[in-house]
Amino acid sequence: MSKVEFSEFKGNKIIILKKDDLDKFGFSFGKNKAKLIVENYEEIKKFAEE
Fold first, then answer.
1. pTM assigned to the model
2. How do the pLDDT tens digits run along the chain, 50 residues long?
3. How many domains does the chain have?
4. Which domain holds residue 21?
5. I want to staple 26 with a disulfide (CB 3.0 to 4.6 A). Which of 18, 31, 34, 43 is the partner?
């Protein structure tokens, strides 16, 4: 099951998505990239389903 964590990088809030508890690094991004992901959710979803 995936895991979501929140942290900071150079004073900015980031979100970290991990596959599971054993995933050491995961995928992290800040608010600007989060906004891009939200704006393009449908296209990302289509891509993931291919």
1. 0.81
2. 899 999 999 999 999 999 999 999 899 999 999 999 999 999 999 999 99
3. 1
4. 3-49
5. 18
